Amino acid sequence: MDNKNLLLKTTLLAGRIMMESGSEAYRVEDTMQRIAKNSKKFDTESYVTATGIFMSINDESTSQMTQARNRSINLEKIDATNRYSRMYAEGKISLIYLYKALQSVDLQTPEFNKYYRMLAAGLASLSLMLLLGGTYSDILTAFIIGSLGYFTSNRIYVRTEMKFINDLTASFLISIASVLCYRMGFVANLDSLIIGCIMPLVPGLAITSGMRDLFEGHLLTGMVRLVEAILISTVIGIGIAMTLQWFS
Question: I need a surface site. Which of 32, 70, 149, 187 has the fewest CB within 10 A?
């Protein structure tokens, strides 16, 4: 592999890892350009959208692109990619070493298993319930329903790979469970319970990343992320409204 193709593959790999792990577009471009500029051989330009990453060598009219297909949140991958790119910029590692290191980051970085994520979702739900002044019974119920709601959303997405359907179904089940617990007397405040339990589903990171991209001038990526966040919030609201209408 010649230096030109190696540079393109390395920058695109770094960009894809970061974009699929939840990084902002301006941060992805900064990392790609840091790698390219420290090669000191080519005049390069990068362009990043929510689903496509482009890199070109202007001197030779050469460009390549890759897609960001599976977007999630993995801060460990973002940190590792940034760390290796800075090591390359400081001259501590070679370009081929950087490429192999990024391949390892992409394929071997572990993710938290589903039980840890369920636990985190439950803790997020009970924390908000605690802030809203819930009783011990309210907090325990929020923990259980929030964990199961997140698990439902995750499993449906893994099996169907259909966005929005998983959040709609999870919000529907969360609302049903909340209403049943309220009517059986386990909780005192139905509204607070529903709000607490849907918190793990709310696209807070997408909203934050979208706004930061807009402020940095990445209008297309910022708008795409904000629209996606609005759609997720809408289907969550539809699931809750359908349940409350049904039980009213």
Answer: 70
Provide the whole-model pTM: 0.82
At residue 40, the pLDDT reads 66
* pLDDT tens digits along 98-127: 999 999 999 888 887 888 888 998 998 888
Dist CA 182 CA 205 (whole Å)? 30
- Using pLDDT thresholds of 50, 70 and 90, give the confidence band for residue 162: confident
Pick from 107, 134, 115: which is nearest to 189 by CA? 134
Cα gap 67→45, rounded to integer Å? 17
Q: Give me the DSSP letters along 174-243.
A: HHHHHHHHHHTTS-S-HHHHHHHHHGGGS-HHHHHHHHHHHHTT-HHHHHHHHHHHHHHHHHHHHHHHHH
CA distances from 154 to 12, 44, 94, 170 (A): 28, 39, 39, 9
The torsion angle over the Cα atoms of residues 14, 17, 22 and 27, rounded to 10 degrees, is 0
Which alpha helices (H) appear in the chain, and where do they start and end?
Answer: 3-20, 25-37, 75-89, 95-108, 114-131, 136-160, 165-183, 190-198, 204-215, 219-247
